[in-house]
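During the reporting period the student researcher (J.K.) took over the structure-prediction task from the postdoctoral fellow and processed the backlog of single-chain submissions. One of the processed entries is reproduced below for the supervisory committee.
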Amino acid sequence: MPQLFQSQPGQVVVVDIPDVNVAGLANLVVQTSGGYSTPLVRSNGLIITGLANAQQDNSQYRHSLDRKIYVYSFGSDIGDIQMHGYAFWQSCGNGVENAPSGIDSLIEFYNNYRVGNMTNSTSSTTGNQFSVQVQMSQQNITGFLYGMQMEVSNAETLLTSFVLHIKTMPSG
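J.K. obtained the following structure tokens:
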């Protein structure tokens, strides 16, 4: 029986288990001029572990003295998605020479696709190279990557947790 985890802190190994579906896997897709590509989730050394999606409407409520409540609706508000995961300091390799680590892939992804790179002439209502789509089940939610947090979760193994923050476009 091979020993997978020997005493080598920070070492990352890929264990390929065919025909196993990962429950709840979300995908982060970046829109490019030639269609869609998936540079983040398919990267070596990154694991998506959670997804939080908050959507709400713009509304105002007024109470009257005659015990009536008036509701004013102003449509949908922008939403928030937080994508949680782990990134490794070393590359998983997969036989690829000089493959980037999970940390490198994550930082490069954020620097390339963050909304701060958008120019004033870019329309926020049409797709452009800075919009991202989060694919959850059969739903595609369009938004803009505006923040990232990284924290070394385990100093011995250099496992780093991360959160990507995405503002989403109102639906309907």
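The committee noted the following: Residues 27-168 form a domain with the Elongation Factor Tu (Ef-tu); domain 3 fold (CATH 2.40.30).
J.K. will present the remaining backlog at the next meeting.
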